[in-house]
Amino acid sequence: MKPEGRTFIISGGSSGLGLATATALLTQGANVSLLDLNPPPADISPLLTNPSRTLYTRTDVSSTASLQHAVSATVAWSSSSNAPLGGVICCAGIGYGERALPRQDPNADANKVKTMSIEAFDRVIAINLRGTVDLIRLVLPHLAAVKGEGDDGERGVVVVVSSVAAYEGQVGQLAYSASKAAVAGIVLPLAREVGRSAGVRVVGIAPGVFQTGMTSRPRKGGSGAGKAEGEAKKKAAVAEMSAMNSGMIEWPMRMGKPEEFAEFVMGCVRNGMVNGSVFRLDGAVRMPSRL
């Protein structure tokens, strides 16, 4: 599908992977509707502040009412801009870490044991999983009403963001891994449902460790070294920045760049045969049980 002249809804579109995707789509001639709690930065691209190309709606993805308002605003804007819907890209998400079995006070009685916060678990599920499904279900009727394009009659594409944590969840990632595994799990059944019936493709991406606000840490300076020592220091530096275990870094020896994620999304949008699968985008990283 050609992104030019189409409107794409991006949750979490004001930062990180969502912002990079929005910028890439704008560069390729698409319009974007950004759903986020905060507006996009004005210094990334002038197109992000151009009201004819970018719509920002303050949105809480854990709230159906908030999502419905944003989708309604997008549909009206898309119609007035003569840029029909082209897809929805669900990038909104949060990370959270807590053990299912917290360390206990050996002197505490049976009525004072520590347990994992179910409220925090519910919040992760509400944003990462429910927010994704809720947005998709609200957009699909409008996407299915768009005129089909090309020989296949394609109407649009749904892209969801899972994580390598869906496959290699670490200690303390119970809520996050569960939410991202569930996001991966909706891809095939949804693709099977809305492909033939509506001409809509569904794709999942499971990123490894990328440079986002969720992963990046300040980097310390270093000095030159020989090749072997330099590679070791490079691994250590990447590990320090992202809280990764340096032993799990393969190639390239760095975190992924948001622009690389966006480039992969663009490929998914353009290639009509990409459907019903979740693709790892991780540089061969395999997560250990502990960082």
From TrEMBL:
Pfam family, one: adh_short
PROSITE patterns: ADH_SHORT
Keywords, comma-separated and alphabetical: NADP, Oxidoreductase
Any coiled-coil regions, as ranges: none
Keyword hit for Cell inner membrane: no
SMART domains: PKS_KR (SM00822)
Molecular-function annotations in GO: oxidoreductase activity
Domain Ketoreductase: start-end pairs: 6-208
Full protein name: Ketoreductase domain-containing protein
